[in-house]
Design a protein that fits this description.
The protein contains 4 helices and no strands. With about 160 residues, the protein is mainly alpha-helical.
């Protein structure tokens, strides 16, 4: 029952573009950035829930950027990094799920409004797009967390 452990558990450099779950970094950037942009470009009718959505999108975008550069530079070779990778992406997926539900609720409230103008319709459509992007970002972070947890358990 010999077990082999590798010191190079996590990929570094350009190998992160070819390994699961690290290939999810770029789509997380794209969809997380789109949520941030779409929510920031609308009028804030309900500041508290949309403030949470903005916090989550900015937190996850900055965290993923930091994580990405740590992986590119190769500073992720300590034995604790696989657990941190799984933990960060699990927290990000829970945050994004809560933000997506809040944003969907706000969008439903806007859709039930009796006010119909071209500006209102534009905001409503932007919110619908933000809801879709936030659920896609949730899925990507969740997949990244699952595959990171599998990699952590194998290390």
């Amino acid at each position: 029952m010999a077990s082999t452990t590798s010191l190079d558990v996590l990929p570094t450099g350009c190998r992160i573009f070819t390994s699961i779950p690290d290939v999810f970094f770029l789509p997380e950037f794209v969809f997380g950035g789109l949520v941030w942009i779409l929510v920031a470009s609308t009028r804030v009718f309900f500041p508290n829930p949309l403030g949470w959505v903005m916090f989550v999108s900015v937190f996850c975008f900055v965290g993923t950027t930091l994580w990405f550069f740590i992986f590119i530079c190769g500073a992720n070779q300590s034995s604790i990094w696989p657990a941190l990778d799984a933990g960060f992406h699990f927290v990000a997926s829970v945050f994004y799920l809560s933000a997506a539900v809040d944003l969907a609720y706000i969008t439903i409230l806007l859709g039930n409004s009796s006010t119909i103008s071209s500006e209102f319709l534009k905001i409503y459509r932007l919110d619908i797009a933000a809801v879709v992007m936030s659920y896609v970002a949730t899925l990507l972070y969740f997949l990244h967390a699952i595959f990171s947890a599998i990699r952590w358990k194998k290390s």
